[in-house]
Amino acid sequence: MSLVACALATLALPARAAEPQVPVFWDTKERLAKPDLSSLDRLRFLTTTDFPPFNFLDAGGRLSGLHVDLVRAICSELGIADKCQIQALPWGELEQALQKGEGEAIIAGIAVTEEARTKYAFSRPYLQFPARFIMPKDAVFTEPLYSKIAGKEIGVMAGSAHERMLRDYFPNAKVVTYDKQEALFSDLKKGKIAAVYGDGMRLGFWLVGSDAADCCRFAGGPYLAPEYLGNGLAIAVKADNPALADAFNYALHALSVKGTFAELYLRYFPVSFY
After folding, report:
1. Cα dihedral sign for 260, 265, 271, 274?
2. What is each CA distance from 264 to 70, 74, 112, 258, 273, in whole angstroms?
3. Residues 223 and 256 in one domain
4. Distance (Å, rounded) from C-alpha 73 to C-alpha 265?
5. 128 contacts 23 by C-beta, under 8 angstroms
6. How many domains are there within the chain?
7. What is the pTM of this model?
8. Which of 139, 155, 236, 269 is most exposed, with the fewest beta carbons within 10 Å of its own?
9. Confidence at 107, pLDDT banded by 50, 70, 90
10. Same domain for 19 and 123?
11. Domain shared by 116 and 21, yes or no
């Protein structure tokens, strides 16, 4: 199966739906058992303040972000809103705090790796970060892009996972590497390269920023490839507490089916990177 097909099959998204598209990682027909958390005294989520727009301090110094709103939604779905708390710590203190029992879950973007699984049990991913192309608005290609970008100069950050992915999946493109994003975007706007390939979320923020000056838009994709880009965001709990991870899966599934997660996603990403 091609990368494009893999991406769309995984996401359950229409290939040419209008923006904004919302990622869907859950089978609506799946039935998960509702957990009994009546014996739980409290549920403390640990996060950080330096991962916007997921977790950050707003202008009033309040902990805010997609993760904060998602925690509230999860706790409401589980019927334990009065037992839930969320606390921000420096990144380097999260693991120790969890292991010491100063919290029950971490929602801060811990990478889901084999090594991490020796320390944590994870929920299923609730968000993944696809690779995307961006192109000038007057020259946007539609899928399939493989043949259309043959021989075209495509900019990408040097040494990145996106460079490796671009070379492996689009070997017919002329890859142009950059050490600085400013130069990458400048060449795109000047027409020196046909497209930029990179992290969809970061490219989405650039598209709506003043520097882009409404020059460009997403083209093709989204492209998901965990072997290059990781497994996405998941909630971590202690390795000996997989039942709590399962409880989060129940809540995340319900929030997806009800459309609650879509509302949260579009609140923080009005230009969808899917």
Report:
1. negative
2. 7, 12, 22, 12, 14
3. no
4. 12
5. yes
6. 2
7. 0.87
8. 139
9. very high
10. yes
11. yes
Residue 14 tokens read as: 């229409």
pLDDT digits (tens, 9 = 90+) for 234-272: 999 999 999 999 999 999 999 999 999 999 999 999 889
Beta-bridge partner residues of 238: 120
- Phi–psi pair at 252, nearest 5 degrees: -65, -40
Residue 264 lies in a domain: yes
Which of 135, 132, 131 lies closest to 189 in space, CA to CA?
A: 135
Q: Is 8 within a domain?
A: no
| DSSP-based helix, strand, coil % in the chain, nearest 5 | 35, 20, 45
Task: Say which DSSP state 254 is in.
Answer: H
pLDDT digits (tens, 9 = 90+) for 7-25: 433 333 333 333 458 888 8
Tell me the CATH number at 215. 3.40.190.10
Residues 197 and 241 in one domain: no
Q: Where in the sequence is the domain holding 44, given as residue range(s)?
A: 14-128+232-268
Per-residue pLDDT, 7: 43
